[in-house]
Design brief:
The protein has 761 residues and is mostly helical. It is 58% helix and 4% strand. Helix 5 packs parallel to helix 6 and helix 25 packs parallel to helix 27.
Amino acid sequence: MKNYKVLMAIALSSAMLLWLPPRTSACGPYFEEAIFTRPDHPDYPLTHFAQGQLGVIQPTYARSYLVVAYRYLNGAPLTKTEQDAAVALWNERLKSSESTREGGVREWTDARNRASGAPQAPEFKGSYRPFDQKDNYGEYLNCAPDSFHTAADTLSRRIARFGPASPEVAEWAQAQDAVYSNCSALGAIPGLAKSGLPAIIQADRAYQIAAANFYSGNFDTAAQMFKDISADQNSPWRELAPYLVARALVRKSTLSAGPGKCDTDLLAQADSQLTKVLGRADLRSVHPAASRLLSFIRIRLHPDERLRDLGRDLLSKDAAAQFKQNLIDYTYLLDKYESDAGSGLADAVKKDDLADWIFTFQAKDKPSLDHALQKWSATRSTPWLLAALSKTGQAAPASPDLMAVAARIKDSSPAFPTVMFHRIRYSIETGQRDVARRLIEEFFSSVSPALPRSAVNLFLAQRLKLARNLDQFLSAAKRIPSGYALDELNETLNEKPPDAKKTDKVLFDADATAIMNERMPVTMLKDIAANQALPAPLRRGVAVAAWTRSVLLGDESIAEELVPVLQDLEPDLKPDLQTYLTSPNAPARKFAGILLILRFPGTRPYVVPGVERTEPIGKTDSYRDNWWCPLNLDLAASNYDKMSGMQEPATAGTAAPKKKPAPAYPEFLTEGDRVAAASEWKKLVVIPTAPDYLPAAVLEFAKQQPEDPRLPEALALAVHSTRYGCTDKETVKFSKAAFDLLHKKYPNSEWAKKTKYWYGN
């Protein structure tokens, strides 16, 4: 699997050199993405959610969060022990498993390096081993982090007793090297310890030989050796060994029956072994691990019974000490039910109110609404009220009774933000805009300052839809992200650690920029750029977009009016803007505008949501985050989010549309504004990608003014744009035409000497 991912990464990075949309796909291996509303988990710190500050509960949250939400919605808050357990689990799941594994390896490596009397340790090949030694595409974690922690701790204690250069430590370290040679492939089994070595080294060696057999897949041998160790009263491993007998049985069960299957007879033997372990007081040190493994077994042997028991235990304070493991096992069973229709869990899910609520809340179909309403009518509970309310809308009107009960939820309730969100959403969807305005102002006047940022942004998105004038629109458009992530090859978003310097950085979310780009005329963008209520970075982005757009549309009056604002926000543009203003005629002004755009790759005719390009406006981004891609109608309708970095804002309780719908016109736009915006957008979407448009414009000007001294630079920059811009199949002809003219007419210019190649697909 790893080899496949590497090959795919290489293929993707090669493909990106041929065509890249602006910003989101253009920033190469890594780019920063602002997260305004988190779809998968609550905002950081997760302790707030564990304490009952639920914000707007999203049905897309991982189910462990919904379990906690259900507890608070039902008036059963988590104890401090349970809160800590939940947060520990969430942090483990959100943390990279690779970094966790490497942490264990590093700990072992550090300890191993202190064994100065032993030969240098061989290179560690990894913790994962293929299911089949002939198949490199399926693998499992063979050597877990705990193994390295135990080895490091044991070696440290042996060094403290015998000394780092002692033969005892050298023997021990070399044997452990052999053990770990089996982690990723079939390695060596340590031999018996040399006679005369202390008894503890002899006992350690017996354990090391058993462990090596375990990692190499000799499970029967390993199990028998662990049994023998458990009978040795002088072995420091005698308490752990009975548990490891069960571990060997479980590992054999999971690997011998095929992918995704288990040998139930072996699991039953392991169940019996662990039951004996838990019944022995002298083995209490391994009882926690034994309990976890026993739960692992029973959710596979008796999933329906285990789901029922876990659902009960998760709602009981008596099981607080096992809360983390119960949450792990419960969500495993829910995932199994969803992925495996033959899991036998259907009846158990229906009978378990918690599981039933989670699946109903997450479902998007009409039967789930009917079921939610039935459950709410029967229970009148807050979780089912929320589930039913979240599914109402224009196509599924809410009953007066449902809305009346929702209106009585107090602002002190953990459910209040979610209920208010859906009351406002429902009012907007059903055309009750004044009701929605009253509710949203009521909400903001009563909400706690500790409301999660994701929730604040969801309510601001609602307020944006209700704006009655431009000032209200801009007030709602200003958002502070809940966090940031790094996008690796545009495949996955990896959460970045919180950055204190960015906690109050104001940006535009996608809903606002979509309206600015598609539904506002350039005259209104000019007004936004001049609005002092906006932070300068936001004004700068709008000013650049409005000026670039006006040049492309040939609207000289707006371009001229924007010059004072733009040169104040982007001082580096001032000389070129002055040249634009003093150009003698329309063709000269158009060329001056095109040359400015070529000189400043950060120019583009639309406002970008979230984080802008990281390079200064005048510097070429080496990963092609430069100028613009085509905004044709098909792409605008189906893939505009990827083309311009726009993503549909998350909306709790509703399914994301397959295609991005055109944004609605704000109600404060006049008919003239709407006509102008529609006309401008119609012209913009037929403008080609920048590496086609810009060379074509320069070539056309060269026909009209062949002696203009700026042409060599313009032609060279036009070719440059075809190397670092968003290209298509037509780009090559424009690149070659500009290259040929540059070298034919201006062969001795510095620009011709700098331009050695033309580019394209």
